[in-house]
Amino acid sequence: MKGKRRRGLRLLPSLLLGALALTVLPVILLRWIPPPTTSYMLQSPVKPVRYHWMPREKISDLAGRAVVASEDQKFYTHNGFDLDAIEKAREHNRHSKHTRGASTISQQTAKNLFLWSGGGYFRKGIEAGYTILIEALWPKQRILEMYLNIAEFGPGIYGVEAASQAYFHHSAATLTATEAAHLASVLPSPRHWSVTHPGSYVQRRVNWIVGQMGYGTQRPDSEPEPDMPDELRQQIEDDDGESSAEPAPASPAAAAPSHPQLDPDDEPEPVPVLPPPPAPPPTGAAGEPDGDASAS
């Protein structure tokens, strides 16, 4: 009995090393290799999925700008976690029955690539580990390139190229600011909000994103509130364990303005104009960015 225990203890370091290698190696390889599929694609209820990898230099810069403006305005300055957003979400969740998430683009990339939908501290812990690895091993431009290619933009539609072809019938290389904003507007819940048939909230969100990109004539200080019934909100929360949606207005009058004004501390501060992307470096032999690709 003692001999078996000793052998088990001797094997433990090897098992831990093997588990670490299985975790780290895919992250290293994916810095340069496009993923053939992702965990979220495999779990998609819509089959077959539409997914076409597009190198970052062939995607309109406006797509990256729209996604950063919509999902993670501190993307270029944080190390994978937006601590201010986490604290605000924690404070909000103390006083509301509707949870609010604070996931960055890096966290969403980790989740979409390797994990499963739904909440729970266990999944969040694994997600945090992958986020740290991704931030340590990939440049920001690769993280954004990956996110643009694997994010879901509608039921079974993954990546901006597939989304652009599906909704606008042209390549992601020629996306306009408004088209990019329409795609980014549904990212919090692409299976419930439609690019082609946007409701009043999604349309207000499109206008807000365009303004955050620096192209809009109106620049609201805060993201518009979604008008949705509790049943839909709960379904969204059940899908992923968190919701980036805000509480609905207390009365119809509160929802009347096309750009409702909220507490400025309730959402990320607007970015006057996102910084222009740096020039892309030379590409490798396979056509993939060698190191940093072009920015958003």
What does this structure look like?
With 296 residues, this protein is mostly helical. It has one domain (34-266): Penicillin binding protein transpeptidase fold (Orthogonal Bundle), CATH 1.10.3810.10. The chain has 11 helices and 3 strands. It has helices spanning 2-29, 39-42, 61-71, 83-95, 105-114, 121-137, 140-150, 160-168, 177-185, 200-213, 230-240; strands spanning 50-51, 152-154, 157-158. A hairpin with a 2-residue loop joins strand 2 and strand 3. The radius of gyration is 20 Å and the shape is globular. Residues 270-283 have a biased composition (Pro residues). Keywords: Cell inner membrane, Cell membrane, Cell shape, Cell wall biogenesis/degradation, Glycosyltransferase, Membrane, Peptidoglycan synthesis, Transferase, Transmembrane, Transmembrane helix. This is Biosynthetic peptidoglycan transglycosylase. Residues 244-258 have a biased composition (Low complexity).
- Per DSSP, what share of the residues sits in E-state strands of 2 or more residues? under 5%
Number of domains: 1
Order of helices and strands: HHEHHHHHEEHHHH
Count the DSSP helices. 11
- Order of neighbouring strands in the sheet with most strands: 1-3-2
CATH topology: Penicillin binding protein transpeptidase fold
- Classify the secondary structure makeup into a structural class: mainly alpha
